[in-house]
Every structure is written in C-alpha cells, then in structure tokens.
Amino acid sequence: MSHFGFVKVAAGVPLVKVADTAFNAAQLEHLISQAAQQGVRVVAFPELCLTGYTCGDLFLKSLLAQAAERVLGALLRRTEGQDIIFIVGLPVLADNALLNAAAVCYRGEILGVVPKTYLPNYKEFYEQRWFTSALEWGGNEVTLCGMPVPAGTDLLFEAGGMKFGIEICEDLWAVIPPSSRLALQGADVIFNLSASNALTGKHAYVRELVAQQSARCLCGYVYASCGFGESTTDVVFASNALIYENGTPLAFAERFSAEAQLVSAEIDVERLRAERLINTTFRADSAYETADPYELIESGQPVFPITHLERFVSPTPFVPRGSRLDENCQEIFNIQVMGLATRIKNAHAQTAVIGISGGLDSTLALLVCAKTFDKLGLPRTGIVGVTMPGFGTTDRTYQNALTLMKNLGITWREVNIKKACQQHFADIGHDEKVKDVTYENTQARERTQILMDIANQTGGMVIGTGDLSELALGWATYNGDHMSMYGVNAGVPKTLVRSLVLWAAQHETDKQTQAVLQDIAATPISPELLPADAQGQIAQKTEDLVGPYELHDFFLFYFLRYGFSPAKIYFLAHQAFSKKFDSATIKKWLKVFFRRFFAQQFKRSCLPDGPKVGAVALSPRGDWRMPSDASADVWLAEAENLR
Asked: Which residues are within 8 A (CB) of 208 and not within 5 positions of it... i.e. 6 or more apart?
C-alpha cells in the first residue's frame, strides 16, 4: 500500500513541573507512546520541555542540564522499540556554552541537536542571560547521553518519506527565519519547539505567522508550545499547538487546557513538492541556497502505509466552505466583471450579445454582463440577450430565460432555430430522425452563427458562456458554443457556477429575480439538444452522459493543480465521496475524465480570451500548454488497474 505522499506528524503539549525532569520525561513518554499507536512518524514537543521553560536562573546551575541529559537517556532506552521520531527541547551543555536546543531522537539514538539561533532578550524574555545563540556558539557537534551527536542549525533530517528541519520559537519571528533556508535546502516540514506566552491578540498573530511562513516556504509547519504547569510568576502559557500545510490549517490544540494534548495531521509531501516544482521563484532561491548544502541525516525510518486519512478532503475543492464562500464568490464575480469591462471598453463595443438558455452558465454570464454595464455607466439595454428555442428546449428553461432577461432590463430577442436547422439538414442530406452528433451540433453552430451576426448588426461582441469544466471535458461544439469574443466563465468550474449564481441572487438582484435564479440553480444541467420527454421535461441530462460534475471537478483540481496520478486522485476521491459514490463509479468516471481530457485538447488550443479567476485554468496562453496529440495511455493504464 502506497503512502501517496502523506506523512503523519504531531505536536504534543505535555503537562510539566518546573525543574522536575523525571516527571516531565514520564509525561513525554506517555505522549510518545500515544503518538506511535496512532501511526505518527514524527512528534515535536515544546521548547525546553524536559526542564520547563520558566526555570530562570536555575538554568545556570549545571545540575539541571545534567538531570535533563540523564532523563533523556532513560527516555531513549524506554522508547527504543517504538517506530517514531520524537523531538524534545532541553538545555545542552557544549563546552563553556549552554544551548537552548532540540534533540531529534529515534530508536534509542540521538540523530542530531539543533540549537536556537535567535534568543529574545526584551520585555518579558531574558534568554541571553542563560543561553548562547547558535550564531555565537558556532560548533558542529555535542556530546549528549554519552554519544557524539551532530549539532547545528544546518541539519536536515530524513524520515518516513519526508525531509524536515527544526527551528525554535523566536527563530520564527526573525526577519529571515532559519525555516526559510531549511525549506530552500529541501525541508518538506518544519518543526518549531516554542514557549510563547499568551497575550491579548497574540494567538491570532501566531496563527498568521505560522500560516504565512508555511505558505512562503511551501512547506508543512508543526508548532508546539508549552502550557499547563509552567511557572505563572509573570506570564501564562496557553497550550498552543498548530499544524499547517502551505498556509492551510490542518489541526489545533485546545488552548488553556489543563490536560496534556496531542494533535496530529497528515502532511501531503507530494503536494508540497508539486508546488515547489511549479514555482520558479522557489526553484531560483533553492539554486542560490544549495551552493552550501546542509547536512542530511538519514534516520532509516521506513515509509508508513496510509489507508485512511484523518484530514478532511473536500468533495468540492473549487468551492470553499463557510465564510470564505461568500468572500470568494464576491472576488470571482468582480474579476469576471472587471475583465469584461476592460474588454468592452478597449474594443469600443456598443453591445454585448449573449445567448440565454435558462441554464446555469448563460445565467452567470448574463449577471456578469449586467454588473459590467452598471460599472461602466452604460444602460443595460446595450446587452442583447437572445433566446433560441430548438428541438430540446423545455418550457421551464424557456420561461426562466425570458423572465430573467426582462427582470434585468436588457434588450431581448427570440430566434427560433428549428426551421434553419431543418433547412441545413436538407442541405447536407441528413435525416432529421437520426438524432446523432450531427443533429446536436447543428443546433449549437446555428446558435453561434446567430449571435455572431447579431453582434455584427449591433456593433457588439459575443460573450461566451462555457465554463472551465466543459473546457476540461471538451463538452462544447467546436466552432459552436466553443467560440465567442470573450468567455467570462472560462475560469469557473461547474460546481462553482451554481454557487456564484446563488450568491448573486442574494447580493446582486431583487427578490423577484432571486426566485428565478433559484429555480435555474435547481434545474438539471442539459444542452437541451434532444427533444423533451413525454411530460415535457428535460430528457438529455449532461451528467448522465459525461458523469457527475462534482467528480470531474474533483479530478480536474487534483490533476491540474498538483499533477497527481490517477491512483492518488482515486484514493482522495474515496476519502471525499465515501458516502456518495462506490469504487466502481469513481473508477468509471475517472477513466472518462482522462480519456476526454486528453482527446479534447484541440478545442482548448484555440480558446477565446477569458479571465483566470482561480489557481486552475486551461488557457493555452496561460496555465496549460499541452499538445493536442498527446497520448493518455499511461494515465488510462493506471486508472484501469485501480482496485
């Protein structure tokens, strides 16, 4: 079983007694065993956790450092049989210096010692009174627990399929934190042993700091800070533990808890490395830093197989949850509006011509047009909405299209395409009873011709309505709905289109228009190119033909954004859709996705302009450059063998 790039890490917050090293070591041993049982590969504990951070001038008494060293040796012996790396903070005597250090331990050995670089000596902190900075010390080895151990800030550790580095508390606050260089040297994950006291507003700042550093370094970041039991003479510690991945929070401890805590999460190392591979700025900085490479210490810890994830995998990666949804919808809508406004102004277009079907995509495009004309101070009558009933148009979508256009106050026209299509069938000798791809595409191309000609009539430009998901699957008629003069939805996936329409219903329209928008959002997705059923309902449902858009958008996100293999996408889909789709269904549509994505590249190679709104886009001038003749065999072969 593959680990799919996931490595489980943890931050532990033990109970401590100041200067009671035996008690503290026992607390650590309990949390280490707990972490090992949970499949954690590396667990970090707070700064100076073996002694307590608040020992003050007791640090200058050599007996305390000796006691810490002694209990560490005993802890190594008692945990020797457990397949877990643990990182503990303790004072380390190094010749005539006392280091505030982190010891990296595995199977009875100390792999390395990392001393703290930046010692705070302001306000409530007095660390320079007791400790020597790594910069001042300058050594590369210490003797600890009777063994010579590599020491320094230029150490990287390999474990369980990842590389990690260490910094200690104030190091993160520095202008150039050690973690920045560690990441450039190849560290996938940074562990921070901290002892940061609680102050009003400080927790939010720490979270922002950790989030920003993990994002800037394209890394996982595990932050463990001390809590209950530290001296409260002047300060209080709040049991803070955080795990982030490239700016995204994965796990938090309960603050102000009087109990020991262990928080864990799976870091997706493959995802982080994919980000670094894409990011040319990171690669350039890495090349600069690797002129003087850090020492890599290999632990020999094997990769641990992952069969299930604790971390949440969203089934809708393009659609954020909670308050971020409203914020993102507003941002995306404004990007679409600003892009279209710029294009209309620069093209000196007198009108915007758009086909209105009563479906989701054309509805969103029309809402964008309306807002754009408002922004430019132009009358909405300059928007020409055209409804073009055909053989499959249902009364529901037809009435919704008319109501929406009237409510928004645009100029609307109706052009029935049935006779024109029938004439075309006669011209090319096609039997109208044969409802094949010719029958369907004739309608799409006829509609596009009408829109283009009306744009010529009115001195305007045709606004495309096709979305990102349709571009990925090639679900568009070449030189039909595939073509426009500006595609406002080109960067918006189908799962997000519905959210944007519902958001606009709440924020950009009156109550009368809200009702029709909500009905449009509830209408099955269909091109309506085949006749309705006996009850007049939509007979041709897109998702019955190409598969559920929520699955295809999920596949698209992880394939384009991170380059994941079919096997990993399949694994993640199981996590996200376990209650909705079985294995056979996921596998079926995953194969369809890859087959269609590769086969339909020729349509994407000649796309109209359109705004990029998110991290995934398919413009041949921007994010995605792919030959139309590329083979999908490698991806399809892996997908076929999935179980």
From this structure: none
Report whether 109 contacts 86 (CB < 8 A): no
pTM for this one? 0.92
- Strand 261-268 with 6-13, pairing: antiparallel
CB-based contact 62:17 (threshold 8 Å): no
Coil, strand or helix at 436: coil
- CA trace torsion 320, 323, 328, 334 (10° rounding): 160
pLDDT of res. 529 = 58
In the numeric block, which tokens belong to residue 233? 């003479």
Provide the residue type at 225 as one letter. S
What sign does the dihedral 59-64-65-69 (CA atoms) show? negative
Count the residues in the chain: 643
**Which pairing describes strands 141-144 and 460-464: parallel, antiparallel, or unpaired?**
unpaired
Place of tokens 């900075």: 133
For residue 130, count other CB atoms closer than 10 A to its CB: 16
Distances (CA, A) of 425 to 60, 438, 448, 455: 95, 9, 17, 25
Distance of CA 18 to the CA centre of its chain: 41
Q: How far apart are CA 290 and CA 44, in angstroms?
A: 26
Active site residues per annotation: 47, 116, 169
Helix, strand and coil content of the chain, in percent to the nearest 5, comes to 45, 20, 40
Residues 6+ apart with CB under 8 A from 52: 16, 17, 18, 19, 20, 24, 226, 229, 230, 231
> What are the phi and psi torsion angles at 484 (to 5°)?
-160, -175
- CA 23 to centroid of chain Cα atoms: 41
Neighbours of 582 (CB within 10 A): 11
β-pairing verdict for 189-194 and 383-387: unpaired
Q: Using CA atoms, how far apart are residues 354 and 455, in angstroms rounded to an integer?
A: 9
Helix/strand/coil for 111: strand
Q: How many CB atoms lie within 10 A of CB 73?
A: 17
**Where in the chain are the domains?**
6-298, 323-640
Neighbours of 516 (CB within 10 A): 22
Q: Which one, of 238, 226, 310, 247, lies nearest residue 11 by Cα?
A: 226
DSSP-assigned states of every residue in 210-247 = HHHHHHHTTSEEEEEE--TTS--SS--B---EEEEETT
Distance CA 229, CA 233 (A): 12
> What gap in Å lies between CA 603 and CA 316, rounded to an integer?
25
Q: Which residues of the chain have pLDDT under 70?
A: 1-2, 289-291, 526-530, 532, 534-536, 538-542
| Residues 130, 403: Cα–Cα separation, whole Å | 76
Domains 6-298 and 323-640 share a fold: no
Q: Which amino acid is at 581?
A: F
Q: Which residues contact 593 (CB under 8 A, 6 or more apart)?
A: 472, 473, 547, 551, 552, 555, 556, 559
Q: Does domain 6-298 have CATH number 3.60.110.10?
A: yes
Give pLDDT tens digits for 106-165: 999 999 999 999 999 999 899 999 999 999 998 999 999 999 999 999 999 999 999 999
**Contact indicator for 446, 417 with CB cutoff of 8 Å:** yes
Q: Which CATH class is domain 323-640?
A: alpha beta
